[in-house]
Amino acid sequence: MKNLRELNPFRLGFGLMRLPKNPDGSIDIPQVCRMADRFLEAGGTYFDTAYVYDNGASEAAFREAVANRYPRESYTLCTKLNAWMQCSDEKSAKQQFWTSLDRTGAGYFDYYLLHALQRVNIGKYNEYRIWDFIAEQKQKGLVKHYGFSFHADPELLEQLLREHPEVDFVQLQMNYADWENPGVASRRNWEICREHGKPVVIMEPVKGGILANPIPEVREILDRANGQVSYASWALRFCAGLDNILAVLSGMSSLEQMEDNLRTMKDFSPLNDTEMQVIRQAQEALNAARAIPCTSCRYCTEGCPMGIPIPDIFTVYNRREGSPHFRTVREYTIVTTGKGKASQCVQCGQCERACPQHLPIISLLETCREMET
Ligand code: SF4
Ligand code: SF4
């Protein structure tokens, strides 16, 4: 790969996983257009989507907001093939590539990923020969760089990079909350990529929004250090200051979030020693907290036979933990109306196999049952 700063001088990437929505649940395209305009105007180029995001609506939104409105050389695009969601066999898995090409209107992909590799799904990528399939597309010029996004342990990462030295880069979940979290292993996985000479794209730098609106204990620590900047800016600067980084993705949902991130990245400065000390205090406060570290990725909900809105229930639980006056029963009823409730879980385990955070969802739902009364 070329020099990383040449490929993406701005460092920030626009993640298209949590785009703004209309009241009917569709993506608010005019708002996405405004966000894309501001991103490109500020010097950003890197967009990140996936075949499965919003059941394809994210890729379609990219086409409307960017591909249809900007020349091809003004942006770079990454999307992903998922061999364990929204497909049933080798043919339908590979078809995702062609559908993404058509849906994004990009003509080719600057970056392409095998999506969310974990021990439970790696067999599908091997069985369907997705590695070879993407290498063929690279040979044809339809993919410029490819790799995999990863949600597992350092041993599996080592193994994959030994078996596939041809990959160009790796996408990792990294943020200050998960830096030493044994379930995510941000630091160790980043070190392994460096040892193998593989640039890293960072996903979830604000942990699905958790670090943009952190628990009261963390807010207090950050406010005491500097009340003038956003909580998200601490999280972004922590990630963007690391070396060997191709892009730091932020899944932005509003123009306000976009503007805040642009302010952080425009005159970027990494955290200094005093600020790193503040982050260490925040890490300790997070480790001591009871909040459920769900990133609202929703990979768990697609196959739930009871239609339980798992991340929404966890959000209600976390908000209750952070606020003594929270109207728990009312909020719980709103998110579960017409859907499954925590008490209806039949413990099939599908959600736990899909969860990239490796959360013990079944026992967490047991805990959440108390909110039903
Ligand atoms: S274990 Fe419970 S919550 Fe998870 S998929 Fe099965 S029924 Fe749904
Ligand atoms: S429980 Fe896991 S899979 Fe489900 S939304 Fe949260 S982090 Fe994602």
Helices and strands in order, then pairings?
Layout: H1 4-7, E1 12-15, H2 29-41, E2 46-48, H3 57-67, E3 76-81, H4 90-104, E4 109-117, H5 122-127, H6 130-139, E5 143-150, H7 154-163, E6 169-173, H8 186-195, E7 200-203, H9 216-225, H10 231-240, E8 245-251, H11 255-266, H12 273-288, H13 310-322, H14 328-336, H15 350-354, H16 361-368
Parallel strand pairs: 1-2, 1-8, 2-3, 3-4, 4-5, 5-6, 6-7, 7-8
The structure holds iron/sulfur cluster (2 copies).
Please describe what this structure looks like.
- Helix 2 crosses helix 3 and helix 13 crosses helix 16.
- The mean pLDDT is 94.
- With 373 residues, the chain is α/β, with parallel strands linked by helices.
- Strand 6 (169-173), helix 8 and strand 7 (200-203) form a beta-alpha-beta unit.
- The longest helix is centred in the last third of the chain and has 16 residues, at 273-288.
- The protein contains 16 helices and eight strands.
- Strands 1-2-3-4-5-6-7-8 form an eight-stranded parallel barrel, surrounded by five helices.
- The protein has two domains: 4-287, TIM Barrel, CATH 3.20.20; 310-372, no CATH class.
- The structure holds iron/sulfur cluster (2 copies).
- One iron/sulfur cluster is lined by residues 294-300, 310-311, 354-355, 357, 359, 361.
